[in-house]
Each structure stands twice: as C-alpha cells, then as structure tokens.
Amino acid sequence: MGAFIEAIDLHKTYRVGKIDVPALRGISFGVQKGEFVTVVGPSGSGKSTLFYLLGGLTRADSGKVIMDGDDFAALSDAERTRMRKRKIGFVFQKFNLLPTLDARSNIAIAQEISGNGDRDPAFFLRICDLLGLSKRLNHRPSELSGGEQQRVALARALVNKPAVVLADEPTGNLDTENSNIVLRMLRQSNQELGQTVLMITHNPEAAKYGDRMIHMRDGHVVKPEDDPQWSVH
Ligand SMILES: Nc1ncnc2c1ncn2[C@@H]1O[C@H](COP(=O)(O)OP(=O)(O)OP(=O)(O)O)[C@@H](O)[C@H]1O
Ligand SMILES: [Mg+2]
C-alpha cells in the first residue's frame, strides 16, 4: 500500500521576467497516514512551494502529488477544490483571516464551505476552549493579538476534522507561549483523530513535535547528515 501522501519527483520553476527561478528540483517522499512530519530547511529551499503543491493550491511543472489515492493533477479544478475543502486543513504563516468577520465566523466559515455537512457544535466549542479562544469569539482579527489570530486560524483548520493538516511556519510569528499552545494542539489533534500532519518550521524546538523531519535544501530533499544546520543538534 502506498503512503497517504506521496510526492513523486516534483519539479517547479517560477518565471520572473525572463529569468527562471527553480524552486523544486525533483522532490520525492511519502507520509504515512497518521504521521506528524516536519519539514525543515533554509530560507528559499522550496518549503512553501512544496506546501502549495501538496495542498493542491498550485500545480507542479512535472511530478505528482497523490493524496489518499487521488492524483491531484488528474482531477479537474472543481474536483481538486472539493477535495481540498473536504480533506485538508491549512495553517498559513500570516494567518489569512477574513478581516470583517469575528473569530467565531472565521472559524465557522471552514465548516460552511467544506460541504461536509458534519457540523459538530460540541467539537467547535471544545477546539475554541483548548485554544483559549472562548472569550475572544466576538473579536475581529484587528481586535486580536497575533497569537490569538494564529489560534483562530488553527481552530479554522481543525474544526472540520480534516484527514490532513498542512501548516507553513504556524509558529513563525509567535512568542514561546503561543507557539507551545499551537504545537500542542496540532499534536493532540494528530493523536486523537489520527490526522496526517505536515508542518514546515524554522524552529528546532517546534520540529521536535513531529515524528520525523524532512530536510530540504536548494529544492531537493537531503539526508539529515547533509543538513549542516540541523546535524549539529
Ligand atoms: N511567486 C514566486 N515567484 C518567483 N519566485 C518565487 C516565488 N515564490 C518563491 N519563489 C522562489 O522560489 C524559491 C523557493 O521559495 P519558497 O518560498 O518555496 O522557499 P521557502 O523554503 O519557503 O523559504 P522561507 O523559509 O523563506 O519561507 C526561492 O528562491 C524564491 O525566491
Ligand atoms: Mg516559506
């Protein structure tokens, strides 16, 4: 049986004017169902590009992303969008909350657009409680701290109990206390629901929350011993 998420020889090059900027130069790996994997590597090594491809937010130039047996590239745009909403919870470094909606609606919107038809009010309240948001649900993003905004974004990602959680530097803008809340929640959700989690991070402490690390460098996956930044730890 294949892995739950499979990246197969992914290539992606951005074109800026007349210049090609290769971001991924042949990335392959598998993530098993229920695994919590962290992706580490220097700035510019292609981590966010990988995140967008794994989430079906952009297309690879070549190679494949297979999730739960479905090949993203073989799906129509509509099918890919539907699968994304149903199966994947996203956490972005910059929160990506809707500024005019309060925290409650920012979280609830994930349930509305998922089309799962499985709204679970008790689970909604529990997630908010675990993330310390219960008293902030009427606040808009501009009335929340950065840490609170990221906790709202995490609640939004988790409230549908997605099979897969993809997080790009979810603690990148947070202090230690908020980072720990976010990381513990990701870990708890992964363990309770058997979710497959892939988290990009710069932070060695954060990377330890996962079961294993994938090391990236210059658009490639490299062995841990070939990653000087990390092999010293
Ligand atoms: N939209 C874009 N247009 C052109 N080049 C891009 C674009 N996005 C990323 N790149 C380039 O692709 C390479 C990989 O970028 P990417 O954002 O995937 O790196 P990263 O590992 O996430 O870095 P960081 O840790 O700084 O977030 C870099 O050289 C970057 O300059
Ligand atoms: Mg990035």
Helix fraction, binned, reads: 25-40%
According to CATH, the fold-level topology is: Rossmann fold
Distance between the termini: 34 Å
Q: What's the number of extended β-strand segments?
A: 10
Helices and strands, in order, run as EEEHEEHEHHHEHEHEEH
The largest sheet is:
6 strands, mixed
Strand percentage: 25-35%
Main structural class: alpha/beta
Task: Please name the CATH architecture.
Answer: 3-Layer(aba) Sandwich
The best one-word shape is globular
Give the ligands present.
adenosine-5'-triphosphate, magnesium ion
How would you describe the oligomerization state of the chains in this entry? single chain
User: What is the number of independent domains?
Assistant: 1
The main sheet orders its strands as 6-7-8-3-9-10
Q: Which spans of ≥5 residues are poorly predicted at pLDDT below 50?
A: none
What's the CATH class, please? Alpha Beta
The count of helical stretches stands at 8
Q: Kindly report the name of the CATH homologous superfamily.
A: P-loop containing nucleotide triphosphate hydrolases
Instruction: Kindly report the average pLDDT value.
Output: 91
Output the radius of gyration: 17 Å
